[in-house]
Structures are given as C-alpha cells and as structure tokens.
Design goal:
Layout (H helix, E strand, L loop, with lengths): L9 H14 L3 E7 L3 E4 L2 E2 L3 E4 L3 E6 L6 E4 L15 E2 L6 E6 L7 E6 L6 E7 L7 E6 L5 E3 L5 E7 L5 E8 L2 E6 L4 E4 L6 E11 L4 E11 L3 E6 L4 E4 L2 E10 L5 E8 L2 E6 L4 E8 L2 E11 L4 E11 L3 E6 L5 E3 L5 E7 L5 E8 L2 E6 L4 E4 L6 E11 L4 E11 L6 E7 L3 E5 L6 E8 L8 E2 L14 E5 L8 E10 L1
Parallel strand pairs: 1-5, 4-10, 12-18, 20-26, 28-34
Antiparallel strand pairs: 1-2, 2-3, 5-8, 6-9, 7-8, 9-10, 11-13, 13-16, 14-15, 14-17, 17-18, 19-21, 21-24, 22-23, 22-25, 25-26, 27-29, 29-32, 30-31, 30-33, 33-34, 35-40, 36-39, 37-38, 37-40
Amino acid sequence: MNALFPSRFVLALGILCLAGAASGQTTFNVTASGNTSYVINGVSDPILTLQRGVTYTFNINATGHPFYIKTVANSTGTGNQYTTGVSGNGSSPGTVTFTVPASAPNTLYYHCSLHSGMGGTLNIVNAANSAPSVSVTNPTSGTVFFAPANVTIQATASDTDGTITNVQFRVGTTILANDASAPYAATTNGLVAGNFTLFAIAADNGGARATNSVNIVVDAPPSVTITNPSNGAFYVAPVNVTIQASASDTDGTVTNVQFLLGSSVVANDTTSPYATVSNGVPAGNFVLTAIATDNYGARATNSVNILVNAPPSVTVTNPLNGASFIAPANITIQATASDTDGTITNIQFLVGGTVLANDSVAPYAAATNGLPEGNYTLAAVASDNRGTRATNSVNISVNANAPPAVRIVFVSVSNFVTIKSTGTNGWSAVPEYQCALSSGNWTVVPNFTNSLVNNTNTTTFDRLEAVCGSSNVFLRIRNAKD
C-alpha cells in the first residue's frame, strides 16, 4: 500500500499538529529509518505545524541523510532550499534552526537531499491559529468493495478560529480531488483490487491542516467456468446431467460454487473439484449456471445452454405380434409415429437387421416381397428432426405351403353330424359327402354355416342335410386354402 501518510501514524500526526501550534513544542529530534523516512519525535515523516514568529530546533542524528527545509516536495539535491530564518540547512548530523518569518508561505517541506522517499510537510500557521478538524464519514474503515470500485469519499471539516478553505482527498499518495465547499466529497474511478488508505486533508484560512483517514479493501471477484457440459450440448430425455466447474480467486479463496438448472438450485459445493448431477432432466431448453463466491462475498457467474430432446414414439400397427403367414409371404407393414417437441422426419422399416424401406410421409408403410419360411422380427425405427430415434417391433412366422389334409369320417344316416376340424392357419375345413365310398364323387355339404377357418382341433356342430337313400352317408373333411 503506497500512502503518503501511512495509516498507523494518523493519530500521532494530529497530536504533532496541535503540539507545534498550541503547546509551545519547539524542539524536534530527528533520526532516520533506513533510506525510506525521517523519524521525528518517534513518528515517520510526520506533518509538522509551525507558527510564524517561533524558533524551532531540529536535532539531526541521521548520518548520511542531509536535512533541508525546502519549497518543493520530494526534492532531492540541494536546490529549492528555503533559507529565510533557517540556519544549518543540510546538517547530518547537526542542528537546523528555523525562526519562521511572517512572510513564510503556508506550506514548506523538509527533505533528505539524497533519498527521494525521506521527507514531509511543514504547515506554516499564524501564532494565534488553531488547526482545523476533519473526519472521513464515508466509507467506514474496513469496508470491502468489489473491483473495479467507484468509491464515494465524504468528509466533514470545521475550524474553531477561522474557515475551511479546502479539503483534499487522496488515495494513498495520489491526489484524487480538492473540494473548497461543503459538503466535501470525491469519487474514485475504478479502483483495482488491493488495500487502500483514503485521506481527507482539511486546510483553514490560516494555513493550518488536519488529516483523517480510513482503510478499505477492494476485492477482486473470483472466476468460474463450467467445464462440463459444453455450451449447446444435446441430450435425450429423461437424462442425468453431470455439471462440472473450475473456480479460483486471485486475492482470497473460493468458499462456495452454487449450481443452478434454470432458476432452480441443484446443489452447493464448497470443495474442489466442484461438481453435481441434475437427475431426470425432462425435455426442453435449459440454462446451466455456476456461481462462485469468495471469502469477501464477491461473486462470479458462468453459464451454458443445453437442449434435452424428447424421443419420438412409434408403433407397428400391422401385422399383429405373433401373426402367421404362408410362404412366400408379401406382408404390408404399417406404423404410426409422433414427436411431442418436434417432427418425424423418417420411418425406417426392417426385416431382421435388413433395411426394407424408408418412408418420410405418413401414413408410414412398406411391403415385403416373397418372404420364405421362417421366423421374423419386423421393426419400425422413427427418427425426429433432432436425430433421436425410437423403435417398435413385432414377431411373425412364415410357414411352408403344405398340401391339404383330408380325413374321411363314416357317418350314419342322421340329420346331425359332429365335425372336428384339422384345419391349420391359412386353411379352412370344408365338409364333403358321398353315398358310396367307391364312387369318387364328393359333394360339398350344403348350408354348412360354421366356419372352421384358421382353427385347429376345433369341435363344431351342424345339421347334415345330405340324403343318400340308404343307411349310410360317407363324410370327409377337406382342408382347403383360403
């Protein structure tokens, strides 16, 4: 912290200003603190208030640091000396005496001719003048600001035997502003991170000065970056999203990283590596945010956008699962499909692992061409406008085209007959009769109403209206292809 008047000496400075002007203190013992400052009556480079018409003695015990009273601040070398009423300028060691003339300017300086950092201010006042008082009212000492900081400094100042002519505001040794009228204030412009002493220096119409200061902290905010997922990442709902972030602080520590999904808090993580999981994220567009907080309460935010896509839905509507066909089979496969947050761009039909066709327009359908005997899985794969897929399938069987089975049944002359079918899928039982088994002529039983199509070992009853004029009727059940 570079400060013209270090904060640890502020109280001592106020005492010296009063002692020189009011209590009659005229002797100052001067030593050196290395090459950085003079130590006068135990205080480093204090502001001294001297009265016109009073003689002051400076006992110099600072070998190698010639002590000069000068007209210019921070002036090394032997130039810019103030000599009126001064004897012993440049003593090291030795004695410098200064009888302050009535013509002395309101401000003089003492300085080492060899080292630029050693020196201070001499406030010259009239013998009857009391020093003013000043107090920094804003900010309070210890206040924390976040960089870059625009800090408004406010002060009150008064003078019991005159008027305040100016209040000078400083940030460290840098003059910020001079304000000649109350209310006294100045504003910093973009203070960077660091520790600062803010000064208010009041001057009265007699040239006396008083100083007050406060210390503040300007905190650099932390930094945070979401490292996973990347911006624009794509997921399929519902999804568990792992969120990871890195965070650091150049002038302190990171105390917490808060993760949000939209405006909802997912988790707070106080230990690196910073991460959490958002479970079961539904379809939608989401903003993932990481907010890092440092030990002074400063925050930094980083966010990414993700897309969670709802998959489409698809159903094979024809044929039904478990359907049976006769080889060679030409089967029409039909499907319905929809997408809640987009559009269906394609339906791909497969027989086993072989692509049969692609259909991009509803109604979605494709046809096989002469499937041979075997068991097959027929699948429909729907794709939406974001490339997400969904699959539905049915299992079918394709059977060999076997010749019809014939069973001859002896039936007595009766008006009723019981028929037990041997029909198989794709075939139907057809009752036929003749009067003589050797004739070879079979006639379809008339008015037979019960269907035996696709039934196996099914018992059915019907009236037999065949009359042969003899005691016997011969009946056969023939399996006929539909």
